[in-house]
Amino acid sequence: MVGVKGVNSVSDENKNLMLELSDVSLSYHSKRTTFEHGVHNVLNGVSLKLSEGEILGVIGKNGCGKTTILQVMAGILAPNSGIVRQRPGTSAALLTLGLGFKPQLSGRDNTIIAAMLQGATQKQALSYLEEIKEFSELGDFFEEPVKTYSAGMRSRLGFTTALITHVDILLVDEVLSVGDAHFKQKAEAALKERITGEQTVVFVSHAAVQIKSICDRVIWINDGKIAAEGDPDEVLSHYDGFLNSMKKKD
């Protein structure tokens, strides 16, 4: 072990494990008076295991810590306490829109940068360019500065770059609402094809239908803790009950 923070290796005793979080907590200081002593506990003692080839769904209301847990898994954020273990020699990347985009650079140049930020070598990033240009349907805009793009165009480029970059552990953060209706359908089909093979995935979504159709197991995060874990139908049922109870209180 290397201290109590950061990413360590999964032990040989758990050869099917790709990623493990052990008692992970993450907090930051805030000026908001609603947080006790000015500390916001985003994650609080979270422990979970991700096996090779598994598709793990993550659900929860806005602000519960879903995106944060993906950022911890990707190594973007370091926990205040606890351990993140990853199988040696594996890569993990967060599939989120517009990672690393610089407005003044072209779509082509941003694609190279984003692909490399997600673990690709420069040679690999260059080899993805034509496929990304074709799938994103940007045409000549692929050579134009990203600052000239509409929000939908940025989303299409970000989604396509993240999808086509190949990694061992794919961390997916709410990306199936990108672009217009045509591209949204195309994006969902491409993502499902990618993650229903042997790909190891952690998938954050508010869409129960997508969670049920894609995931092997689901965790529900509430106030930075795992409130329920297991079969997608069962966990979603508990979550729906929670949401309904919240509506009644309102």
Spans of at least 5 consecutive residues whose pLDDT stays below 50 are: 1-6
Whole-angstrom Rg:
19 Å
What CATH architecture of the largest domain do you see?
A: 3-Layer(aba) Sandwich
Describe the sheet with the most strands: 6 strands, mixed
- Give the integer mean of the pLDDT values: 84
Portion of residues within helices:
25-40%
Q: Which strand-content bin applies to the residues?
A: 25-35%
N-end to C-end Cα span: 47 Å
- Structural category: alpha/beta
Sequence of strands across the biggest β-sheet: 6-7-8-4-9-10
Instruction: Work out the oligomeric state of the chains in this entry.
Output: single chain
General description of the model:
The chain is an alpha/beta fold. The chain folds into 2 domains: 7-90 and 207-249, Rossmann fold (3-Layer(aba) Sandwich), CATH 3.40.50; 93-167, Helicase, Ruva Protein, domain 3. Helices cover 35% and strands 26% of the residues. A 6-stranded mixed beta sheet has the order 6-7-8-4-9-10, with helices on both faces. A 4-stranded mixed beta sheet has the order 1-5-2-3, covered by helices on one side. Strand 9 and strand 10 (225-230) form a beta hairpin. It is globular. The N and C termini lie far apart (47 Å).
